[in-house]
Design brief:
Elements (H helix, E strand, L loop, with lengths): L2 H6 L16 E10 L5 E9 L4 E4 L9 E4 L4 E9 L2 E6 L2
């Protein structure tokens, strides 16, 4: 942390995605994921919380993209994505 950040107590953001803001509950819900172009992939919702959910998908997802979850119909934004795992947040 730099000198100015310590003086002004600048808030820093942690990029460690393994830390959870809310506890997540494990689940295994098979579903499909559709992007804006209409491509569909099978995926699995692996954990859920009040603020979002995690999925495992063969699709290469990018942070900030909007996806549609088909079975429990949810429009969601990709918050983080690594390899075949991603964290999504429902869009209101």
């Amino acid at each position: 942390m730099g000198i100015f950040a310590s003086i002004f107590k600048k808030q820093t953001f942690d990029t460690n995605y393994e830390k959870r803001l809310r506890p997540r509950h494990a689940c295994a819900i098979p579903t499909e994921l559709t992007d804006a172009a209409g491509k569909t992939w099978s995926c699995r919702i692996v954990d859920m919380s009040e603020t979002g959910f995690g999925i495992i998908s063969p699709a290469s997802l990018e942070s900030g993209s909007i996806m549609n979850i088909v079975k429990p119909y949810i429009v969601a934004e990709v918050v983080w994505a690594r390899e075949n795992k991603a964290g999504l947040r429902a869009v209101k």
